[in-house]
Amino acid sequence: NIFDTEKILNRPIMVSVTDKSGVAGIAHWLNAHAKELTHGWVEPISKRHPGVRHIYDWVMEQYAQGRTTAISPAEMMAQAKRHIPEVFESDFAKIIETIREKADLIAREITESPELNPMDPNEMEMHLRNVIREEPFLQFMAIANTDGERISQVYAQRGEKSQFRQLRKENFANRKWFSSVMANNQPYISQVFNSSYTDELIISTGYPIFDRHKNMIGVINIDFKFEQLFKLLNHLPQEILARENQRLPGNDNLAAEPSRDKRRNRNVAKNEP
Fold it and tell me: Is 45 exposed, middle or buried (0-12, 13-18, 19+ CB in 10 A)?
C-alpha cells in the first residue's frame, strides 16, 4: 500500500479475522481495536498473551464446525472482552472516570471564580460569555436560582445555541443536575450519555453557588463535550491539578446516575442535558 492509510484516515486499516489469520493476525486485530478504543493508552498485546491463544482456539473451532464467513467485529469484541478484559473493559472505564474527574476540576474553576457573582449580573454574564468562547469542550452553561428559575443567559457554542432555544423558558427544578445539588448541597457529575439536544456524548454537571455568608443562592449547569474533553486530557494546567489534589480527598460522593437514562452499553447512556 503506497499510501499511509492510517495517517490519511486517522485510523488504522481494520483486517478481517478468519481461520487463516493465525495468532499474529488475531493479535494485530486486537491491537488495532484497542488503540482505537483507548486512543493508544494501552501497551501492545503480544501474540503470546494467553487471551490471544484462547481467541485463536475459538476461531479455529468455528471453522472446524463448517463456518465459511469471516468472524464479525462484534464476535471478536465479545471474545476480547471475555479473554482480555483488562484492556477491553477496565481501561475504557478508567479513561471515562479520569475524564469525569477532569470535568470536575474545570467546573470548579469556573464556579469558584469571583466573577461568577449573581449579585452582579453584568459581571456574571461577561464571565460566562468569555468562558464559552474560550473553551470548545463546553457544550452548555446556565445558572438557576434555588427555585429552578434561570437567572443567566443560555450559553452554548457558536452555531449550536438554537438547539437549546426551548430551555430559555424552562424551569430547571426537575433536572437531575439541579435537584441533586439542591438535595445534597454537593456537586453533581453525570456519567457519559448522549445529549438529547445535540446527540453528542457529554458529561453534565451541576454546582452550587454560594454567597459570602455561605448560603446557597443558585446552581450552575455546565455540560462538557466528551470527545473534546478527551483531547484536553493531558493539557490541564499543573497549578489546577496541584491545588485540587491538595484540597479534595476524592470525588467518590460526587457522581450520580442520570435519572431517566437508557443505557446503550455499560458506559454510555442517553439522557437530557
Answer: buried
Quick one: which of 133, 31, 121 has its CA closest to 80?
31
pLDDT(150) > 80: yes
Beta-strand relationship, 268-271 and 192-195: parallel
CB distance 187 to 254 below 8 Å: yes
Q: Rounded to the nearest 5°, which phi and psi values hold at 25?
A: -65, -40
* CB proximity list for 186: less than 8 A, separation 6 or greater: 180, 208, 253, 254
User: Distance between CA atoms of 31 and 13, rounded to whole angstroms?
Assistant: 11
Which pLDDT score, from 0 to 100, does residue 37 have? 63
Residue 157 grid coordinates: 457554542
Q: Which of 123, 126, 258, 130 is nearest to 203 (CA)?
A: 258
Gap between the Cα atoms of 267 and 19, Å rounded: 32
Question: What is the Cα Rg of the chain in Å?
Answer: 23
Task: For CA atoms 181, 182, 183, 186, give the dihedral sign.
Answer: positive
More confident residue, 125 or 270: 125
> Cα–Cα distances in Å, from 95 out to 4, 141, 152, 267?
28, 24, 33, 11
Q: Which residues contact 177 (CB under 8 A, 6 or more apart)?
A: 188, 190, 204, 205, 206, 219, 221
* CA–CA distance, 88 with 242 (Å, rounded to integer): 31
C-alpha cell at 209: 453557588
Span 249-273, pLDDT tens digits: 333 333 333 333 333 333 334 444 4
Q: Which DSSP letter does residue 12 get?
A: P
* Backbone angles phi and psi of 207, in degrees to 5: -135, 135
The model's pLDDT over 162-180, given as tens digits with 9 standing for 90+, comes to 888 888 888 999 999 999 9
